[in-house]
Amino acid sequence: MERPAPLAAVRAKAPRPAGAESGAVAPAVAEVTRPLSLARLLRLARRAAGDLLPPVSALLLAAGIWEAWVRLRDVPEYLVPAPSAVVSRMAEDPAFFAREGLVTLQGALAGFALGSAVAITLAVLMAHSRFLEKSIFPLAILVKVTPIVAIAPLLAIWFGFGLMPKVFIAGLIAFFPVMVNGLLGFRSVNAGALELLQSLAASHLEVFLKLRLPSSLPYLFAAFKVSIPLSVIGAVVAEWFSGDRGLGRVIQVANNNLDLDTAFGAVFSLAILGIGLYLLTAALERRLLFWHESAAGV
Amino acid sequence: MPELPVTDIGEHVAIEGLTQVFDRGNRPLTALSNVNLRVGRGEFVSVIGSSGCGKSTLLRLIGGLLQPTEGRVDLAGATPAEAQRRKAIGYVFQDPSLLPWRSVIANVTLPLEVNRRSRGEDRRRSPHDLLHLVGLSQFEGYYPRELSGGMQQRVALARALVFEPSLLLMDEPFGALDEITRRAMRYELLRIWQAGDGDSGRKTVVFVTHSIPEAITLSDRVVVMSGSPGTVRAVIDIDLPRPRDEDMETEPVFLDYVVRLRRLLGEG
Lengths: 298, 268
Prior knowledge:
The complex is a heterodimer of chains A (298) and B (268).
Chain A: H1 7-13, H2 26-33, H3 38-72, H4 83-92, H5 94-128, H6 130-145, H7 148-159, H8 163-187, H9 191-199, H10 204-242, H11 247-256, H12 260-288, H13 293-296
Helix pairs in contact in A: 4-12, 5-6, 5-8, 5-10, 5-12, 6-8, 7-8, 7-10, 8-10, 10-11, 10-12, 11-12
Chain B: E1 11-22, E2 29-40, E3 44-48, H1 55-62, E4 70-75, H2 80-85, E5 89-92, H3 104-113, H4 127-133, H5 149-161, E6 167-171, H6 179-195, E7 204-209, H7 212-218, E8 221-226, E9 231-237, H8 252-264
Parallel strand pairs in B: 3-7, 3-8, 5-6, 6-7
Antiparallel strand pairs in B: 1-2, 1-4, 8-9
Helix pairs in contact in B: 3-5, 4-5, 7-8
């Protein structure tokens, strides 16, 4: 199916530093290492604008409609606060939202890390043994279908207040997508490459490190992008029931006081947190998965 | 198990009464039935037959990727598993099977990174020299997706040669290429194989194909297989002088071989 591309075409398509002896690619190398010029700055700015303009304008449009609706219909502020009121509440005390947000972020990330580590370990075991897959998978589904809200109050009794219940719930929520995708990823290897390694008597560990792990990265990153925002939600739920700090606690207290500006301020902070984490993951993915089909599909 | 006769000095692959039955529940499939074959050291042997005649199965049995139901494979006194542990078998598949996250040069050196205990530094070739040999010196830093199908297959060939295996198993390596590239690769392979004349001698090659001209051009002998279950129908000596070139393909001797093989394959 693949046509042999003329060498010149391939080279033009991929200005990659390819061996110092090759004179034809030297200009491309020079371009990469050239210091910031005005033209290059302008190009970067244009690209940043292209990346930011669509989401920011959509966000502003949504906020505008919300604001207009609240003002025109005179919606009382104990039912729905206007976005402008929420933003001014946040601007009033940004350190407060940042501090509580950081507490939530810690719990979410610790939970995500722990949940992913357990998930990947189990996925590795299952990828190497159908027996283990059959025994572990039902347990994992049991964990998955357990309604977190039902056990969340218990966690305060088991683990007390603070970080532990948060890590537990965030980890529990992050766990399943990572395990399922990890298992799929560790198994989705190129059959020829696997046979090649087998024909060289490569060990299971070598096959895992050289083939299975890199092959699984696209699957794992797809799972991370789902799991990271979920782990933030998990941390918030935990704080709601058993937190002494964090944005979940802020929302709960504010709701009880009908202080919706503060409650929505916390929700907005959570949104910023979620978006930030997602973008970070996506950036890391672009860097690590430059070789994958998905990198070219945009 | 029958005692294997003492192998000749020049014998590399000895296949005795090889039978392969795939257990597929209640409908077992006999892919190979009592196949016997001997390949001399440094010989180029093609295995030709229609799809599903068991030729790929035969190659996988020789390479130790499958365990035979009956019979045995002897690789110069070793079992295929022992040969694998000694890194004595180079494999090239129809799919280049390059790792997309590795550059061309890193793909070529992959075999050197696994099973390190089996081989010291002495039995490896310079990956740079090999890429030069397959005409890809300028593409060392490229990634597989930036290369055409023919170039990818040349990388796969360099990867199979980097640890200096004495036996090269090729499973329709040019099957996925277009006709023009395929013909070019045929002569390139001949050139590379003949270039191995020096230090370690020519490699023994078992080459699976379904192209008659390809088999004749490349081989010292052509093994014709027929399917369901796979058996060896005939073995034809190709008595053409080497080095061979494209002009040979229009000569009467060459065309005689084509006609003969076509008859054997039941094409006319």
